[in-house]
Amino acid sequence: MTTDEYVAPAGAPAEAECTGTDGGTEASAADCAGAGLGFAAGPACNEKAPVSFTVSRVARLHRMVSGKHLRSLGLYPGQEFVMVHLWTRGPSRQSDLIRAADLDPSTVTKMLQRLEQAGHVRRCPDPADRRAVLVEATESGDGLRAAVEATLSGLEEHLLTGLDEGERQELLRLLTKAERNLCREAGGECELPE
Question: pTM of the full predicted structure?
Answer without folding.
Answer: 0.69
